Amino acid sequence: MLTLGDRPGRPVDAHGSRGFDVTAFGITAEAHLVTVRLRPGGVVGRHPAAGRQLLVVLSGDATVSGSSGDAVVLAPGQAAVWEPNELHETRSESGLVALLVEGDVDVASAPREVEYP
């Protein structure tokens, strides 16, 4: 069993970030799988996305913004998508654990049913 958010992370302070750490736990030829943690009041400073990024809130809260700078509050089970080179930022009032998938990921704009063989 893999419990996201329980493994020690690497602190990140680039771009004015604070209270932020990341833990890589998987990789494919197309994407990196990372756990993002923010302490209460933490911030991932505004920076360009290295590739397409999908941030899925697992616990806590996230206030995110993309290229427009407009803030959107996300709760557990909600996600944000940023395109390559898009400036973005993430903040959390109460603290956050999120799954970040970064790379060549096809993300549907609306939920759709996926058929498995």
UniProtKB/TrEMBL annotation:
Transmembrane segments: none annotated. SUPFAM superfamilies: RmlC-like cupins (SSF51182). Residues 35-94 form the Cupin type-2 domain. This is Cupin domain-containing protein. It comes from Nocardioides lianchengensis. The lineage of its organism: Bacteria, Bacillati, Actinomycetota, Actinomycetes, Propionibacteriales.
